[in-house]
Design brief:
Shape: globular
Structural class: alpha/beta
Largest sheet: 7 strands, parallel
Helix content: 40-55%
Number of strands: 7
CATH class: Alpha Beta
Bound molecules: NADP nicotinamide-adenine-dinucleotide phosphate
């Protein structure tokens, strides 16, 4: 991880769950510089402080709604103004919306696609000139739902399928510029994402038990495991890897 020490990581969705886990891991294991993005100021500041205590380096905390075009522009501008460059863009922020074709509202489709796909497209577009300068890397957080059909969350599933194809197309486009683009598809991670699936606390507990029980390795994926994969993909050890999707799912895709 020696080669990550001077790198600047821009991480969306760093105020909670997987994104917070990535920021914490990098601050514990490296001296990378972190630009952390989220909407909830209190949570983002808490994660930022935690990182600062670990590495002694103060992250740049950017409160922003990445679905707002002006906020996305501010995110990239503030990161570049503050650190002078961007080496690694982690498109992690995401939301879930429930329902299938018979029972979901278009508002759900718009919210999920705007967050999980449109904002990724926009942020990547804005960051690309800076990533070309550093010959940097992009890592998109997808989900196994992007390649495995299921009926509970149609808009979410297709947003992740689109994200994986986006990853491959942009990897091909930016390869001549020396920018690598990959995605990670986690299986179940016990995070705040679940608060939007419309279950009571009791129902949620049963849901989690069932999901984990059906995973061949019988354990939820941990944030630190995803963060370790991020660190590898961002490093020179992965210098020939682009356009790939890494599944980390406790064997769920085997079923
Ligand atoms: N949990 C799982 O089982 C699982 C599995 C596979 C893939 N994933 C993917 O992993 C990623 C992170 O999810 P998570 O499980 O860590 O969920 P989470 O705990 O709910 O975190 C989601 C993060 O995204 C941020 N976010 C959402 N909408 C945003 C917006 N419009 N602007 C800025 N930030 C926004 C949230 O920020 P605020 O809270 O500050 O608003 C939060 O930091 C998502 O892309 C998700 O699809 C999750």
């Amino acid at each position: 991880m020696e080669d990550l020490k001077e790198k600047v990581f821009l991480i969306t969705g760093a105020s909670s769950g997987i994104g917070a886990g990535i920021a914490i891991y990098l601050s514990k294991k490296t001296t990378a510089k972190l630009a952390l993005v989220g909407r909830q100021e209190k949570n983002l500041k808490r994660i930022s402080l935690y990182c600062e205590k670990s590495s002694g380096l103060t992250p740049l905390a950017i409160i922003a709604d990445i679905t707002e075009d002006s906020d996305a522009e501010r995110v990239v501008n503030e990161a570049v103004e503050h650190f002078g460059k961007i080496d690694v863009l982690i498109n992690n922020a995401g939301v879930i919306g429930m329902g299938g074709i018979k029972n979901s509202e278009m508002e759900i489709y718009d919210k999920v696609m705007n967050t999980n796909m449109r904002s990724v497209y926009h942020l990547t577009k804005l960051a690309t000139p800076h990533l070309i300068e550093t010959k940097g890397a992009i890592i998109n957080i997808s989900c196994i739902a992007g390649s495995r059909p299921s009926t509970m969350a149609l808009a979410y599933n297709i947003s992740k399928a689109a994200l994986e194809h986006f990853t491959k197309c942009v990897a091909l486009e930016l390869a001549p510029d020396g920018v690598r683009v990959n995605s990670i598809s986690p299986g179940f991670v016990n995070s705040n994402l679940l608060k939007d699936i419309g279950l009571s606390a009791d129902q949620l507990e049963i849901f989690v038990k069932n999901v984990v029980g059906n995973m061949p390795l019988k354990k939820a994926v941990e944030n630190g495991e995803i963060a370790a994969l991020i660190a590898f993909l961002a490093s020179d050890s992965a210098k020939s890897i682009t356009g790939s999707n890494y599944v980390i799912d406790g064997g769920s895709m085997l079923r």
